[in-house]
Design goal:
The structure is a single chain. By secondary structure, the chain is of the alpha+beta class. The chain has two domains: 10-107; 113-238, Immunoglobulin-like, CATH 2.60.40. It contains two helices and 13 strands; from the N terminus they run ααβββββββββββββ. The strands form three sheets. It has a five-stranded antiparallel sheet with strand order 6-3-9-1-13, with no helix packed on it. Strands 2, 4, 5, 7 and 8 form a five-stranded antiparallel sheet that branches. The chain has a three-stranded antiparallel sheet with strand order 10-11-12. Helix 1 (10-58) runs antiparallel to helix 2 (68-106). The radius of gyration is 29 Å and the shape is elongated. Residues 1-25 have low confidence and may be disordered.
């Protein structure tokens, strides 16, 4: 017998806000759906538990009745699970509000020029984001900028002179032979070059662009710099 323990402009801003609200609602709906599913599952398990308990009590041996302490423990276990699910539902509601607040707080970023940490560029219609290189320091006087395609092959390799101020490097969307490349994602690596021509390691370069949109997903607020999408936590400077 089974037992009971088995169981940017104004219009742009409005459009962005609409898109952002939709993505936030989707993220919130996903977590709410999971909580509702858990609650329904617990409700079904509780009904099964009560049926098993009733059957067990009905067919128990009168000379060896069920231990009331065991019954109390089983009921307490179900009550504890039910309370935990309710707590999770409240936490998910708070997280949903937090996501919405974060997105609203980021809205003033629309149309602003920013710098973000990124290991890739997004080429669209022959245009990509600018790369901002650091100041020359010590014997590191140049930077090697390498772009790679989806296979890891280097499609563009440029050596840029560094100066006393940050240097901007722009990619024209062409490879080393001057052929225009297809739109898409290209890996970005920036390394230092010393006075002898040797490499000195990775340099802290950033990608610059204008914020053209925002969205919200399970990973948080996402900023769009043209075709490039990156997390809000990669933001390094707002101009």
């Amino acid at each position: 017998m089974p037992t009971a323990t088995t169981a940017a402009a104004a219009s742009t801003t409005r459009n962005t806000a609409t898109t952002a609200s939709t993505s936030t609602a989707s993220a919130n709906a996903a977590t709410s759906s999971a909580a509702a599913s858990a609650a329904r599952s617990l409700g079904g398990d509780m009904q099964t538990f009560l049926k098993l308990l009733t059957t067990q009590l009905r067919h128990q041996d009168p000379t060896q009745p069920m231990d009331p302490n065991q019954l109390t423990q089983q009921l307490a276990q179900f009550a504890g699970v039910e309370q935990q699910i309710a707590t999770n539902q409240h936490m998910e509601a708070l997280l949903g509000l937090q996501r919405t607040s974060a997105l609203v707080a980021a809205t003033p970023m629309m149309g602003r020029e920013v710098e973000v940490a990124s290991d890739h560029l997004q080429l669209s219609n022959g245009t990509a984001q600018e790369v901002r290189l650091p100041l020359a320091t010590g014997n590191v006087t140049r930077a090697r900028v390498a772009l790679t395609d989806g296979t890891g092959a280097v499609v563009r390799d440029a050596v840029v002179q560094l100066g006393a101020a940050a240097t901007t490097w722009s990619w024209d969307g062409k490879n080393a032979q001057g052929r225009a490349l297809a739109d898409g994602r290209y890996g970005l690596t920036v390394t230092g070059v010393d006075t002898t021509g040797g490499t000195t390691g990775t340099l802290p370069a950033v990608v610059a662009g204008t914020v053209t949109g925002m969205s919200q997903d399970q990973d948080g607020v996402q900023l769009a710099l043209g075709a490039l999408t990156t997390g809000f936590d990669t933001l390094r400077r707002v101009r």
